[in-house]
Structure to design on (71 residues):
């Protein structure tokens, strides 16, 4: 099994892939980032309320959204 705490593997860095989602009802993404960390993903703060989490095979940016425009 690859080391899950290392950077994204080179074969995945140039692939164009986007996944979007919304964290309703959260002021920041810390609780969700902590869930990923418990599964062995690395995590770091990337903004006031957002986090970047990843493994050697995937990276995702967790950003909360305020307001009803995304209901």
């Amino acid at each position: 099994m690859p080391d899950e705490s290392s950077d994204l593997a080179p074969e995945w860095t140039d692939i164009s892939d986007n996944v979007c989602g919304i964290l309703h009802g959260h002021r920041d993404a810390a609780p969700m980032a902590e869930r990923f960390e418990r599964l062995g993903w690395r995590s770091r703060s990337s903004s006031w309320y957002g986090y970047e989490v990843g493994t050697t095979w995937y990276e995702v940016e967790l950003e909360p959204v305020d307001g009803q425009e995304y209901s």
